[in-house]
Amino acid sequence: MSSRRFSALGHAIKNTKNITQVKEEKISSFFAENVFTISKMEKYLTKAAYEAVNDAVENGKTIDRKHADKVAEGMMKWAMEKGATHFTHWFQPLRGSTAEKHDSFFQPKANGEGIEKFSGDLLVQQEPDASSFPNGGIRNTFEARGYTAWDPSSPAFIIEKAAGVTLCIPTVFVSYTGEALDYKAPLLKSVNFIQNAATDICKYFDSKVKKTTVTLGVEQEYFLIDEDLYFSRPDLVLSGRTLVGDSPARGQQLDDHYFGSIPDRIYAYMTEFEKESLKLGIPLMTRHNEVAPGQFECAPMFEDVNIAVDHNSLLMDIMEKVAVKHRFKVLMHEKPFQGINGSGKHNNWSIGADTGINLLKPGESPSDNLQFLTFFVNTIKAVYDHADLLRASIASAGNDHRLGANEAPPAIMSVFIGSTLTDVLKSFEKDLKHTSDSSPSIDVNRIPKILRDNTDRNRTSPFAFTGNKFEFRAVGSDQNCASSMTVLNTIVGNQLLEFKAEVDALIADKVKKEDAIKTVLKRCIKKSKKVLFEGNGYGEEWVKIAAKRGLSNIKTTPHALGSYLTKSSKKVFVQNNILTATELEARTEIRYENYTLKIQIEGRILNELVNAHIIPAALEYQNKLVENIIDLEGIGMKDGSVKAQKDMVKALSKYIQGMYAANKKMTDARKLANAIEDPKEQAIAYCEKVVPYFEDIRYNADRIERYIADGDWPLPKYRELLFVR
After folding, report:
1. Does 269 score more than 80 pLDDT?
2. Which of 613, 711, 670 is nearest to 243 (CA)?
3. How many structural domains comprise the chain?
């Protein structure tokens, strides 16, 4: 009997009874208590320092060192009153997780005593080792210098752990030569870029608009697995997903988990991580069971896009930290289990003006609706023109398993807007009067009221309009949202610039402003309508339709990433000062290398599972069958009396040999791929030559699992991983 598996299972069952009780309190009583908010700044900063920070946040003004010293002084005082002894620059390097290097406030004095001190210099800039983070060749190993620089737009916060409290200061991370080495720096540039472009467009409709803001709400899906079972699965521990495992008789086919009653142990975990998140100003609002057993989701309210991205990265850290207390492990991998739904992030993106108007919300007046159509149509046009770049922004080894797998959007980038708005755009393009069953007669030439929420939602669309926002559903659950949001902000901002140039040219030719706007919108609709799709994105018919329309269907990461380096992509990034050509090339190289390393790790894990776990278990059970056959034949029971045992021995032999052969071919293919020096070509080799053997190995391993006696199977099974909670 597999003692390790059953020992882990026994502990897991005990864990289901040991529920950590969490006291629920009124959220408003502790929300953002661990954040250096505006109100706390007013209390702890001088008036001049407070105004300097506000000016930096609102208007992008640089904070001089004199004010930075006062900010640091007040920030340290607040943090120390909360129990902090150390501070860290909290940043997001290009590796998929956050980073921090802790330094003490304590400074020794010459007389042998000490003092707590925090200067503006330490607040504004620190120097972590840049060579040890992914840099795409920008830095050599012997060139270690890099800098983190304070981002005043994202408030400082404190992290409480059992061993102590640390002040965390959100920062960007750049190389010694100035190139961005993180997700945040280009995101901030893209935010500034699109907000300026959108503000200029708004002035066509309302001269009072001084500023626009891009907002984001990130829905986060995840799995929870008992930690004892988790640590008994080498593949989960090292890759985040199960590389083998036969599907249980019951998975998600009964739809009984979705929105079901939340189990007590899960509820206790959710309550605690939500409280920790809310204390850090993350405005979580929603919790529920997701479709697959063991899968759940949480979602916050909308925030400024850069804050939302920071909060999502912080949220994932908190979820993992709190899970340990409840003896859970959080799986953020996009496809941890075969045969059931994977996990993603649904990025709900919109633009608003400082006059209080959501620019993607249909309005009450013809003027408001012309403004809505302007931003609505230009967003669609941006997605059409840069669909491959948008696909590249969410490309990863994990997301390749999820996209198009009958629970997530396909790899084909399309836009869903609903039947009513589809008819509105058709009528607008052709100057026809539009009538809808769900709204009054709509004279599109005058653009009167358009009802919002006038369509169903399409969960198969990667980019869907949902009433007052676009929902980018194809982002992977483990990904940093900054990657996709930087691309989306940049391509929409670029399209708004092109739109304005065309409109201004018509106005210069004496065309009335409203007519000029309508004329250019019609051009955009005509050019981009191929990207609109209202049907089932999971169906094979859509693949054929998309091909006829000339839409790309890039299914794997190595083939998607090249879109970053096309002439049009380089132009949109470099021309608009979001990323330099060097930064683009470096980031793309990092993404290729990251893909290769993840597949390489999975290949090594599979090799271990085959040789050290599955084959030994199969041979041991096969020997038991052979001994049984010999014993039975020894007492005269032959032919039909031992047929079942012989058939099982033959079947096991077939699958053992099949798995062994596939594993050897996979290992040989890895060796050949490892010899390739070019990062792109190596990633393609792993994708095309190594990955196909994974399924062959898995097929045979899962068939072996069906034959071996339950007590002899060494790895926790799907039914245990998914249902013991």
Report:
1. yes
2. 613
3. 2
Predicted pLDDT of residue 433: 58
What Å distances lie between residue 270 and 41, 346, 444, CA to CA?
31, 19, 48
Residue 583 placed within a domain: no
90 membership: H or E segment, kind and range: strand 84-90
Say whether 28 sits in a helix, a strand or coil.
helix
Residue found by looking up tokens 């005509």 in the block: 526
Name the β-bridge partners of 84.
Answer: 165
Residue 669: CATH number of its domain: 1.20.120.1560
| Phi, psi (rounded to 5 degrees) for 22 | -120, 125
SS3 (DSSP) at 114: strand
Q: What is the DSSP letter of 330?
A: E
Parallel, antiparallel or unpaired: strands 433-436 and 303-304 = unpaired
Query: Is the alpha carbon torsion for 13, 17, 20, 24 positive or negative?
Result: positive
Among 149, 182, 215, the domain boundary falls at 182
Q: Is the dihedral of CA 668, 670, 675, 678 positive or negative?
A: positive
What are the angstrom distances between the C-alpha of 632 and each of 333, 626, 636, 640, 645?
A: 48, 10, 7, 11, 10
Alpha carbons within 13 angstroms on the beta-carbon side of residue 593 total 15
CA neighbor of 463 nearest in space, from 528, 403, 414, 407: 414
Tell me the pTM.
0.94
Pairwise CA distance, residues 44 & 77, whole Å: 8
| Residue 163 covered by a domain | yes
Residue-range definition of the domain harbouring residue 629: 594-723
Question: Which pair of structure tokens corresponds to residue 635?
Answer: 């007492």
Residue pLDDT, tens place only, 73-120: 999 999 999 999 999 999 999 987 899 999 999 988 888 888 999 999
> CA 580: distance to chain centroid?
24
> E strands of 438-540, at which residues?
439-443, 463-465, 470-476
Helix (H, G, I), strand (E, B) or coil at 478: coil
pLDDT digits (tens, 9 = 90+) for 640-688: 889 999 999 999 999 999 999 999 999 999 999 999 999 999 999 999 9
Q: Is the confidence at residue 442, as pLDDT, over 70?
A: no
Q: What is the rounded CA–CA span in Å between residue 223 and residue 59?
A: 41
Indicate the residue among 182, 213, 242 that finishes a domain: 182
CATH number at residue 129: 3.10.20.70
Residue 612 included in any domain: yes
Is 224 contained in some domain?
no
Q: What does the block give as tokens for 662?
A: 């596939």
